[in-house]
Amino acid sequence: MTVDNRNAEPHSGGISIGTMHGSAVAQGAHAKAVNVVQGTADASDLLAAVTSLREQLSTLGELDAQLAAAQGEIAATGEIAPGRLEWLRDRVAIGAAAATGLATAGQAAEQLARLLGGQV
Questions:
Q1: Alpha-helix runs per DSSP H in the chain
Q2: Which of 35, 63, 66, 118 has the most CB atoms within 10 Å of its CB?
Q3: Per-residue pLDDT tens over the stretch 39-90
Q4: Three-state DSSP class for 3?
Q5: In sequence order, what are the residues at sequence separation of 6 or more whose Cβ sits closer than 8 angstroms to the Cβ of residue 42?
Q6: Do the Cβ atoms of 3 and 82 come closer than 8 Å?
Q7: In whole angstroms, what is the distance from residue 49 CA to residue 107 CA?
Q8: Any residues with CB less than 8 A from the CB of 5 and at least 6 apart, and which?
Q9: How far is CA 80 from CA 63, 88, 91, 108, in A?
Q10: pLDDT score of 24
Q11: 41 and 115 in contact (C-beta within 8 Å)?
């Protein structure tokens, strides 16, 4: 709960809250405060999304390192080693993985927003 009442002046017989997020307040003998968080997320869904995103990002980092090495080989020798060429060929599908990674990032953002009560 966040309450900011620095500039709040209480009214006679009441309460005054300047700014409040993520909570509820009630006053009086029969008052009832209810704080409803909408769209809660299952932590296992968030864990799966974060894990998948990390896997996708690590794959992109590995590809970048291999491309940099290939670039250096080509600049130095005018050729690329057959093994590296095969490795790169086998991972040309990384473009699809990158698109999947972006979708995974969206899923992780959605799960995080649910945990924050729907705030994006």
A1: 43-77, 82-90, 94-115
A2: 63
A3: 555 678 778 878 887 887 777 778 888 889 999 999 999 998 888 888 887 7
A4: strand
A5: none
A6: no
A7: 6
A8: 16, 17, 18, 19
A9: 15, 11, 16, 38
A10: 75
A11: yes
pTM over 0.85: no
Instruction: Give the C-alpha separation, 4 to 22, whole Å.
Output: 12
Is the distance from CB of 104 to CB of 52 less than 8 angstroms?
yes
* Dihedral pair phi/psi, residue 18, rounded to 5°: -65, -60
What is the C-alpha to C-alpha distance for residues 82 and 1, in angstroms, rounded to an integer? 60
Q: Most distant CA pair in the chain: distance in Å?
A: 84
Q: For the packed helices 82-90 and 43-77, what is the interaxial angle rounded to 10 degrees?
A: 150
